[in-house]
Amino acid sequence: xxxxxxxxxxxxxxxxxxxxxxxxxxxxxxxxxxxxxxxxxxxxxxxxxxxxxxxxxxxxxxxxxxxxxxxxxxxxxxxxxxxxxxxxxxxxxxxxxxx
Length: 99
What we know:
The protein is mostly helical. 69% of the residues lie in helices and 0% in strands.
């Protein structure tokens, strides 16, 4: 599965970065699942649950996550994943659409 290839050999600058990469990949997979792969209601529950957890982070941690996801987007070569990363902060409630 191509999804896991990025975890075979990369070296991340921190555990936080490695965990963010893994979480983003799981969320990207869930968001892209067909109904036959994952129940849509379950997918929404997972995505909303993660967004809720992000909303409980202190502002400084939210800003750190936004910056990290921005770095990930800038380094991403897959256009679809880059778009997902660019939309991530708003899609997961780290910033509101009025910003």
